Amino acid sequence: EDKGNFQVVYDTTNNSKYIKIQNDLKQLQFFEKKSKDLNSKLNLPGNILVNIAECNEINAFYYGDTDTIVMCYEMMEFLDELFTSLYDDEQTIRAGVNGAMEFFFLHELGHALIDVYGIPITGMEEDAVDQLATIILLQKGNDGIAAIAATSTFFGIQGMSVTDVGQLSFADEHSLDLQRFYNILCFTYG
Fold it and tell me: By the 8 A CB rule, do 128 and 121 touch?
């Protein structure tokens, strides 16, 4: 029985960069379209909020206590800076930012679905939701492959930027960035 929907909300911000990101997202209906598509495919036991917010860190989250996916302006800003540093073509930059952002949204969606449906996971949950995001994107054809490539670029650059093994977070719930890079590419190829 369908008792809920994905609902998109934007936190207010005074940061002019984040206001621009917010306006661009609203104009594109980026999260609204994804939520509408998910609402047509999933029967949820309750509402899941998709909150676009200022987080004071480059990240995205799922909070099970409030059934909220949080997509951080800082992550979107970082992705924009990363792809702007790599490419000169605005269309390629936008495709990279939007593709990686979609992957991270689907990653957090995976956490939400595991939580609200009580799905058992073997192994690391973070790896499972990376795999889910990859599988969903593979179903989208060339657009999905481009999103996977953008995300792999992100993880590859992040992973290769570590020059001292002491900087690596071996106890983190996520695999290392280079592991995620190779895992996503291997899962895509396989």
Answer: yes
Measured between alpha carbons, how far is 109 from 67 in angstroms, rounded to an integer? 10
Question: Considering the chain, what percentage of its residues have pLDDT values greater than 70?
Answer: 92
Please answer whether residues 79 and 100 qualify as being in contact, where contact means their C-beta atoms are separated by less than 8 angstroms. Answer: yes
pTM: 0.93
Amino acid (1-letter code) at residue 142? N
8 Å CB contact between 150 and 103: yes
Is residue 111 a contact partner of residue 165, using CB atoms and an 8 Å limit? no
